[in-house]
Amino acid sequence: MPARAGGQGSRGGSSQRGGAAAFNLNWDGVWKVRSQITDRGWESEMVIPFKTLRYLPGQGRVWGLNVARNLRRRNEQSFWAPITRAFYLTQVELAGELEGLGLEVHRNLKLLPYLAGGLKQSYTPEKYGSEFARNVGVDLKYSLTPSLTLDATANTDFAQVEVDDEQINLTRFDLFFPEKRPFFLENAGTFDFGKPEELEVFFSRRIGIDPSGVEIPIDAGLRLSGKLGHYNVGVLDMKTRAVEGIAPANNFSVVRVSRELRNRSSVGLIGVNRQSVTRLADTRAWNRTIGADANIGLGRYANWFSYAAKSQTPGLEGRDGAYSSALEYDT
Question: Which residues make Cβ contacts (< 8 Å) with residue 189, sequence separation at least 6?
Answer without folding.
Answer: 15, 16, 18, 19, 20, 21, 22, 23, 24
